[in-house]
Automatic annotation (TrEMBL):
The chain crosses the membrane at residues 20-38. The lineage of its organism: Bacteria, Bacillati, Actinomycetota, Actinomycetes, Kitasatosporales. This is Uncharacterized protein. InterPro entries: MmpB-like (IPR058070). NCBIfam families: morpho_MmpB (NF047320). It comes from the Bacteria.
Length: 39
């Protein structure tokens, strides 16, 4: 591997998309638990 090779990290938009998906997943999980508690 050369020194000039780019770092092996995902691009910024991919990281922000993954963060948004993680947030949406938590929101969905909390909403499902709330629905189960209300039923």
């Amino acid at each position: 591997m050369l020194w000039s090779d780019p770092a092996d990290e995902p691009p910024e938009e991919l990281r922000s998309a993954q963060a948004g998906l993680r947030r949406a997943g938590w929101l969905l999980a909390v909403a499902m638990i709330a629905v189960f508690l209300l039923l």
